């Protein structure tokens, strides 16, 4: 990423999109160190259950990860101890329909559609949802302050998801 | 397949005390018979009271494959109605949960009060008393009974009361509910997931401590040292006990049987922050100790035949879908009116292990999937349930007890299965 660290211009759709696509690419290609570095120290990665939830902290989610939990999740995908992640699912995610909901010099709110296709042990499954990002400008470029994955079927019975959505 | 025929002529060809044969997971005829002979003939768990706390609250549920509505009427009485209109049989409700004052069918508008009585029929002059007797067209209601917040329903009017069915399990349910930490237990949400396998694979798992260190290795790696030691369940002196009628209890952490005991013990490191938060909120030292001790859940699983487990810190409900498909719900529970910090701690613990993205459940789902996949080969092979059988001791009232890794709980469940399936 070559986004200037100090700029007085608001974050643009192009910048935000490029950032989100990079994140998708890192996850699909299991480049987890770089992925972990994309987040601010106090960022949260959330996969909620109830549509429209606002109080994630006091609600039951599928995932509510701070930095420590994200690291553990990565560790689980790599250490070969988890039978549901050995072999780990291959994923391809497609992000589109991007829209900036808000933007200023320091941050932006990005929303997009995400379709993740998973392949593992002869089975292919798809998870579709909206993703909302809160991105902030850090010293080296954009960083994720919060990412929420809103699965369209979050209140249904899902399959085991042994990877990061 | 001749398996179901074998079951009625010579059940021992299919199921014995210490082993069962593969068609129990794969034969659609056996599955159909289970839905009738088991799920239509016993007490089936449908809800926790907190899910329908107020008058007018309802939730959808199932008894076997049959859709039902669990609803609290205007007077506070709980009903379980078949979710099926008496006109042409459409489901009345397709909303998972909510609040309502009546049940109106979307097809032709027949309206029912919450106690199930048919109240309104649009354009009623198309009928006269000989063709439409309202009193005969109430919703079909099941018999409902409750024990310590657990609501069960049955199609049978003539089976034993719920309390008798639960028997020795009642004591354990009372102990389990102590994780309210002095507050009533309340449902906080649920994780639902599916696996492509037979429901009995899941039933077995709730009383299978043997798999824990291996299948949940990646979870044990991710927790703190203290928790890891506590979850070293095969070396903690736990036990499994047959509770009768297919029920069993598996004690994995004996020091967490009674959460009112040992309140003076030091507060575990992982709950230090929670304790601080509670002190800051003004809770007394005793309250703090009680809440913190309850926050981590109980040290045992109760398996209630056929569909509910009260499992350490949550309810685990299994829902058969077809012979090789099962839905599982992990229902998170917390303290009703209790400190938000304690409920948050419980929610985070639940998210850590349970559900489709937890550090535990996907690994469980994977091995259950493999059991079903393996069942596609070798129909004649036995599935072994004999672990801990020779060393089983008999309690004074004749019930069996063995070490924590024994398959005593599975044997108890299959005993009941056999009793119900071979009548
Ligand atoms: S099916 Fe319900 S009113 Fe006709
Ligand atoms: Fe397990």
TrEMBL record, chain B:
GO molecular-function term, one example from the UniProt record: 2 iron, 2 sulfur cluster binding
Protein's name in the database: Ring hydroxylating dioxygenase, Rieske (2Fe-2S) protein
Species: Rhodopseudomonas palustris (strain HaA2)
Gene3D superfamilies named in the record: Naphthalene 1,2-dioxygenase Alpha Subunit, Chain A, domain 1, Rieske [2Fe-2S] iron-sulphur domain
Top-level taxon: Bacteria
Pfam families reported for this sequence: Rieske, Ring_hydroxyl_A
Keywords per UniProt: 2Fe-2S, Dioxygenase, Iron, Iron-sulfur, Metal-binding, Oxidoreductase
Alphabetical list of PROSITE patterns matching this protein: RIESKE (PS51296)
Domain Rieske, first and last residues per copy: 43-153
Cofactor(s) needed for function: Fe cation
Signal sequence residues: none
């Amino acid at each position: 990423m070559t986004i200037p660290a100090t700029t007085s211009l608001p974050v643009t759709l192009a910048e935000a999109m490029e950032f989100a696509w990079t994140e998708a690419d890192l996850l699909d290609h299991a480049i987890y160190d770089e992925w972990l570095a994309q987040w601010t120290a106090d960022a949260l990665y959330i996969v909620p259950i109830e549509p429209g939830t606002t109080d994630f902290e006091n609600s039951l989610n599928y995932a509510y990860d701070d930095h420590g939990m994200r690291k553990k999740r990565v560790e689980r995908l790599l250490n070969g101890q988890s039978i549901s992640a050995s072999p780990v699912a291959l994923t391809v995610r497609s992000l589109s329909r991007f829209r900036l909901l808000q933007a200023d010099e320091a941050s932006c709110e990005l929303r997009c559609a995400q379709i993740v296709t998973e392949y593992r042990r002869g089975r292919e499954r798809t998870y579709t949802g909206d993703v909302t990002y809160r991105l902030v400008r850090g010293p080296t470029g954009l960083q994720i302050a919060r990412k929420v994955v809103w699965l369209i079927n979050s209140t249904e019975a899902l399959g085991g998801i042994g990877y990061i959505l | 397949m001749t398996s179901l025929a074998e079951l009625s002529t010579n059940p021992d060809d299919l199921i014995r005390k210490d082993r069962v044969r593969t068609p129990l997971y794969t034969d659609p005829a056996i599955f159909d018979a289970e839905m009738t002979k088991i799920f239509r003939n016993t007490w089936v768990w449908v809800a926790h009271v907190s899910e329908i706390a107020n008058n007018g609250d309802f939730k959808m549920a199932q008894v076997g494959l049959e859709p039902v509505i669990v609803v609290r009427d205007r007077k506070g009485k709980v009903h379980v109605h078949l979710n099926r209109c008496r006109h042409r049989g459409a489901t009345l409700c397709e909303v998972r949960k909510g609040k309502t004052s009546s049940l109106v069918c979307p097809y032709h508008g027949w309206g029912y009060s919450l106690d199930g009585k048919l109240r309104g029929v649009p354009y009623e002059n198309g009928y006269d008393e000989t063709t439409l007797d309202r009193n005969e067209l109430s919703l079909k209601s099941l018999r409902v009974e409750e024990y310590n917040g657990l609501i069960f329903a049955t199609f049978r009017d003539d089976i034993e009361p719920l309390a008798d069915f639960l028997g020795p399990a009642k004591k354990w349910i009372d102990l389990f509910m102590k994780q309210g930490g002095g507050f009533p237990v309340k449902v906080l949400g649920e994780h639902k997931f599916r696996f492509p396998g037979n429901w009995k694979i899941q039933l077995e798992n709730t009383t299978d401590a043997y798999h824990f260190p291996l299948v949940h290795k990646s979870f044990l790696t991710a927790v703190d040292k203290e928790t890891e030691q506590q979850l070293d369940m095969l070396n903690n002196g736990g036990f499994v006990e047959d509770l009768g009628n297919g029920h069993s209890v598996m004690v994995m952490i004996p020091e967490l049987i009674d959460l009112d005991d040992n309140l003076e013990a030091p507060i575990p490191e992982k709950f230090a922050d929670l304790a601080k938060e509670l002190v800051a909120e003004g809770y007394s030292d005793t309250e703090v100790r009680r809440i913190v001790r309850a926050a981590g859940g109980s040290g045992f699983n109760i398996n209630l035949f056929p569909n509910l487990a009260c499992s350490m810190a949550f309810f685990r409900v299994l829902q058969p879908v077809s012979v090789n498909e099962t839905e599982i719900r992990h229902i998170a529970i917390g303290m009703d009116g209790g400190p938000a910090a304690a409920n948050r701690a419980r929610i985070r613990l639940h998210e850590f292990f349970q559900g489709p993205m937890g550090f535990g459940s996907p690994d469980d789902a994977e091995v259950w999937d493999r059991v079903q996949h393996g069942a596609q080969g070798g129909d004649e092979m036995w599935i072994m349930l004999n672990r801990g059988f020779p060393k089983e001791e008999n309690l004074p009232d004749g019930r069996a007890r063995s070490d924590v890794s024994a398959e005593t709980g599975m044997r108890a469940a299959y005993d009941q299965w056999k009793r119900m399936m071979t009548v």
